[in-house]
Amino acid sequence: MFPIRDHNPSNRTPFVTWTLIVVNVVIFLSYFPSLSGSETELAAFYREWGLVPGNVAEGINRGGLLTHMFLHGGWMHLIGNMLFLYIFGDNLEDLMGHVGFAIFYLLGGLGAAFGQMMADPGSSIPMVGASGAIAAVMGGYLLMFPRARIDVLVLLVVFIKIFTIPAWLMLGLWFALQLVSGLQMDVLGGGVAYWAHAGGFIVGVVLTLPLFLRRGGRSFWNAFGGKPPHEEVEYRVERRQSGIPRIRRVRSAQGMDRPLSDLGRVPRAGQRRGPRGPWSGGR
């Protein structure tokens, strides 16, 4: 089960989220295709630019605390991380602002790194990936928008289905999986940095808490139904003569047959909704 989209695209262009995605992709393409043919060279590259907890503890290559966030171990590692960032980053950037979100992202990545270092401080295995920073984004998203609707793709052998579930369920299950996997895993053997994921998630919640309280805490949830402060969208599958289905996005369940251009101006994030009208999204 993995998410493919939410129903709350941002009202403002998420410049930082898009920039982070582009930077991660460009950096990945700059080294992986050329080094992937040699495990020795690739491993040496990760030791130099990744995060090696034992080295950092000894004061060696502390720059890896930052550079590891922009490296990935393979195509699926990169694609999965960028998909999660694309889904959950825009709404948080909308509330925090571009600069605030950029700082939040980097602090979340650092918090995730220290979480992994606490689990295995003497490790000589390099850690790479934006997963920890993105986990912080997911933690902040959960705190601010627990009832946002997320579409998840479920694959069970030949069974393929898309379900819509609330963010608290999807992100809560994800966080629980990191904890269980981290407790069961032998950190000395390497593999997925589950404690970086869990640590980043917790740091993301803590860093977002002041914003949550400034917005009114529970009253912010009540005002917007635990969702981002703008109208939701629905996704409608349309069949075409070519046989290739097209997914069309509309502004609410009630507006399934009404074009986006007719739905009027949607309030920017941070503004309260006006009185509920016939085209208001459900809660």
Report on the structure:
- This protein has 283 residues and is mainly α.
- 51% of the residues lie in helices and 11% in strands.
- The strands form two sheets. Strands 1-2-3 form a three-stranded antiparallel β-sheet.
- α1 packs antiparallel against α5.
- The longest helix is centred in the first third of the chain and has 22 residues.
- It is globular.
Short description:
By secondary structure, the chain is mostly helical.
Topology:
Elements: E1 2-6, H1 15-35, H2 39-49, H3 53-57, H4 64-67, H5 75-96, H6 98-119, H7 131-144, E2 149-156, E3 159-166, H8 167-184, H9 194-214, H10 218-224, E4 234-238, E5 246-250
Antiparallel strand pairs: 1-2, 2-3, 4-5
Helix pairs in contact: 1-5, 5-6, 5-7, 6-7, 6-9, 7-8, 7-9, 8-9
* Secondary structure: number of strands: 5
Number of helices: 10
Question: What's the N-to-C terminus distance?
Answer: 24 Å
Largest sheet: 3 strands, antiparallel
How much strand content do the residues show?
5-15%
Key attributes of the depicted protein:
283 residues, mainly alpha, two-stranded antiparallel sheet
